[in-house]
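chain below, 329 aa
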Amino acid sequence: MVTLRIEKYQDKLETAWDNFILSKAYNGTFLQTRNFLNYHPKDRFEDYSLIIYKGVSDILAVIPGCIQKKDEKKAFVSHPGSTFGGILVHRQFYNLEHVEAVLEMVEKYLKENEFQQIIIKQPSQIFSKRSNDLIEYFFFQRQWKRYSELSFVIDLSEYLEDVTVYFSARRRRDYKYSEKNGLRFRKLEDNEIGSFYKLLCENLEKFGAVPVHTLKELEELKKHRLKEIVEFYGSFTEEKLVAASMVFYFEKDVFHTQYLAADQQSLKLYSNNHLDTHLIRTAKEMGFHFFSFGISTEEHGSKLNRQLAGFKEGFGTSYSNNKTWWKEL
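prediction:
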């Protein structure tokens, strides 16, 4: 019988939390560190993150989370300030006995604290150093339900130096047109992040949406919190930015396009093709294992954006499911 204890996260535990995420959890990334999560204003979310200990002070698992109202129910949800949260388990104790005990304890603790629902968005397989099959089995066994969002990825280890060899005929053709149109690709300077943000806002406006992050927050991530992790790239015609991306570096594992945006008046120059081709090429040259386009689904994965998905497929992508598990308590 495993003896564990659970408690809420406190600010004084920030260093211990981040050390666990980055050096001990089998599925931890910078997105779950307090260094990343704390760039959000304190009043934006009601934090309710949890730490599970084995023994007096050894961290076995952590769960970044918040309190939200879901259909009038008090819900524990993976931290909305991150792309994913998850139950992050010490790689040494990622086994039958400990994973089952963690899930049992979390359910019991949240129920005792009057939560009626729990929603956990797990990191997808490409972001985990070991298989997710074990924890997913126990979600299933304990009668959790799940929905999946379809993500598009490229295994760069399978690509030769000329990445366009793996593109569809249309993608290769459109990329050649973009080169003939004189587009140029490069990394953005810090003082050009504002131009990227303006382009992003214009793209989202047609869908009645705004970026999750403010310009100030993006600049803080790039200039202070995640200097070596966040980067911005763009394609230009002369001096005009016509397509751009914010990129996250997950060590040398995943080159992830967090945002992609293009000037709608310049699409005839094939600026999207130009940008994406050079991003894939850059990821390959830098030695990353995976290139991640992100999801192309909406409404918790139930709706597939076929036009966007088809565009991404043209670059030779494969697929990965981003799984969110939930349970009524």
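The mean pLDDT is 94. The chain is about 30% helix and 30% strand.
thats it, cya
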